[in-house]
Amino acid sequence: MGYIWGGIKQAIALIIQLDPEVVEIVWTSVKLSTISTLLASIIGIPGGIAVSKIDFKGKYLFDTILNTLLSLPTVVVGLAVYSLISYRGPLGQLELLFTGKGIILGQVILILPIIVALVRNAIHEIDDRIYDTAISLGATGTQRFRLLISEARYGIMGAVVAGYGRVIGEVGVSMMLGGNIRRVTRTITTAIALETNKGRFSFGIALGLILLSISFIVNFLIYYLQTGDKE
Amino acid sequence: MNFMNNKKKLILVLVLTVLVSSFSFVVVEAKSGDRLILATTTSTENSGLLNELLPPFEEKFGVRVDVVSVGTGKAIRLAENGDADVILVHARKAEDKFVNEGYGVNRRSVMYNDFIILGPKSDPAGIKGMQDVTKAFQKIAESNSEFVSRGDDSGTNKKELSIWKKAGIKPDDSWYLETGQGMGASINVANEKQAYILADRGTYLAYKGKIDLAIVTEGDPLLYNPYGIIPVNPALYSHVNYQLAMSLVGYITSQQGQGIINDYTKYGKKLFKPLAIKPGNLE
Fold first, then answer.
1. CA B102, CA B45: separation in Å to the nearest integer?
2. Among A89-98, A192-201, B224-233, which range has the highest average pLDDT?
C-alpha cells in the first residue's frame, strides 16, 4: 500500500508544482484533442443532420455500418491511417507520420462516426411537427438547418463531448501515428504507457489524475451550459 | 437570468481561448522548419542517454530531433519506408544488410555496451556466475525456468534468438514468454514474474534501483553489443534530411558527442563506451 500511496502523494506534488514536463504533455493532449474534435464536429454535425433527414437507397445498410463504426478500435484506425501516410503510402508526400497532424487525422476518423451517429439520434428525437411546420411556413434550407441545430442543441453538445472524451483518452492512434515523441507528440495517454514502463509510477498517476480532471471539467461545463439555459 | 448569461459567456470565452490557442499551434508547427526524425531502439531511449546527447546538437544547429523509439527491426523498416531520416540501432548483420541493399549510407560505429542475463536471486536454473551464455541458455531450457523474450525483432531479440539457435534449442514451450514490448517494459515483466531475461547493460543499469533481478551471466564475447548510426540514402529518398542527418552523425562521433556518451552514468556506472573515439583520446 505504501508504494501506491507514495506514488499518489508524489503525483499530487507534481501537479501542484506545475512540473514543466507534465504541463507540456497535458497541453499537447488538450490541443490535439480540441482540434480533432472541432474538425470532426464541422464535418460530423451537418453529416448527422443529412443522414437523419435525407433518404437514400441503402440507408439501412449505411446505418448499420455507421453503428458498427461506433466501436471502431483505435489501433485499427491507427493501422489504416499509418498505411496511408507512411512515405510509401498514397499520402506519403504530405509527411504526416509522427506529427501532430497525423494524430489529428487519425482522431478525426476515429470520432467522426460517433459524432455523426449521435447527432443523427438527436435530430431523430426532435418532434417532427416542428420541422414540418417550418417547411409548411416556407422555411429555406438554411433556416431549416438552423432550426434543427437549435432544437437539437443539447444532443449535439453531447455528441461533441462524447467525441472529445474518446480522443483525449485514446492511446492507439496517438502511439502509432505520433510515435510518442518527447515535446512533440507525447500525449497524456502515450506518456502514461511509456513512463509506467520506465518505472516512473507517480508521473503516470499525475497524468492519469489530470486526464480524469479534464474529463470532469468538460462534462461539468456542458452540463452547466445545458441546465443553465433552462432556468 | 442576466447573471447566468454572464457566466455562460465566461465559459464560452474560456472554450474559445482553448480553441484559438490550439489553432495557433498548427500555424507554429507548420513554421518550425528543420526537424530530423531519428528512429532508434528502446534501449537507447530508456537509458536516458538521448536526453543528454541530443539537446546540445539541437541548440547548435537550431533544429529539432524527433526521437521515435522502437526496436531495431522496426527502426530499420521505418527507414526503409522513408519514414525516418537516420537510425541509431544495434544489430550489425541487419545494419550491413540495410546498407548493402542501398537504404542507408555512411554507417558509423557510435558506442557499445554488452548484453547480460538477468535472473531472480533464487536462480532456479543454477547459472549464476556462468560465463558461457550458450550453456546458460541450455540450462534455463532444461530446468524449464521462465524466460522473458522481447519477441519484437529488436536488436536484443535478434541477439537472443541467435543464442538459442547456437544452443540448438527452439524455445516455444510454456516457460518462454514473448512480450512484444520494449526493453524496459520487458525487464518489468521479468521482474514481476521473477524470470530470466537477456537485457542490454545500459537499460539494466537505468532500471537497477527499481527491480529485484540480478546479473547472473556476463562476459561472454558473444554478448558484445555495438551501436551504429546510419543516415537514409538520399539517392533513394530525396525527401530525407540527409544534410542534417550527416551533421548528427558528425556530432555524435565528435569529441563532444563521444565525450557525453563516455561521461553518461546511472547509479554511478557508465552505461555506454564510445567507439568512434577511444576514451583515452577524449579531451
1. 27
2. B224-233
Domain around A78: 2-230
Question: Cβ of A182 under 8 Å from any chain B Cβ?
Answer: yes
Determine contact: B185 vs chain A, CB below 8 A.
Answer: yes
Residue A225 has pLDDT above 80, yes or no: no
CB B79 within 8 A of CB B87: yes
Q: What is the tally of structural domains in chain A?
A: 1
Please list every residue in chain A whose beta carbon sits closer than 8 Å to the beta carbon of residue B212.
none
What is the 3 state secondary structure string of A155-181?
A: HHHHHHHHHHHHHHHCCHHHHHHHCCC
**Closest Cα in chain B to A104:** B26
Compute the mean pLDDT over every residue in chain B, rounded to the nearest whole number.
Answer: 90
| Cα distance between residue B221 and residue B224, in whole Å | 6
Q: What is the pLDDT of residues A8-32, one digit of tens each?
A: 888 999 999 999 999 999 999 999 9
Instruction: For residue A126, give the DSSP letter.
Output: S
Which residues does residue B230 pair with via DSSP β-bridges, in sequence order? B87
Distance CA A51, CA A110 (A): 18
Residue contact B68–A98, C-beta within 8 A: yes
Q: Which three cell numbers stand for residue B248?
A: 548528427
| Nearest CB partner across the interface for B25, out of A31, A97, A98 | A31
* Cross-chain CB nearest to A87 (options B25, B82, B211): B82
Which grid cell sits at A136?
409548411
| Predicted model pTM | 0.84
Q: Sort out which chain A residues have CB atoms less than 8 A from B239's CB and list them.
A: 87, 93, 95
Chain B from 237 to 256: CB within 8 A of any A CB: 237, 239
The x, y and z cell numbers of residue A139, run together, are 422555411
**Cα–Cα distance, B245 to A181 (Å, whole number):** 18
Residues of chain B positioned with their CB less than 8 A from the CB of A97: 83
State the amino acid at position A36 in one-letter form: S
pLDDT band (50, 70, 90) for residue B33: low
Q: What is the pLDDT of residues A120-133, one digit of tens each?
A: 999 999 988 999 99
Domains present along chain B, CATH in parentheses:
31-112+226-281 (3.40.190.10), 114-223 (3.40.190.10)
What CATH number corresponds to the domain at position A33? 1.10.3720.10
Q: Phi first, then psi: what are they for A54, rounded to 5°?
A: -105, 130
Alpha-carbon distance of B182 to B113, in angstroms, equals 18
**Taking phi first (over 0 means left), then psi (-120 to 50 degrees means alpha), and beta for anything else, what does residue B168 get?**
left
Q: Is A181 on the interface with B (CB under 8 A)?
A: yes
Query: On the CB side of A199, how many CA atoms lie within 13 Å of its CA?
Result: 21
> Phi and psi for A161 in degrees, rounded to 5?
-65, -40
Judging contacts by C-beta atoms under 8 Å, the chain B residues touching residue A34 are: 18-19, 22
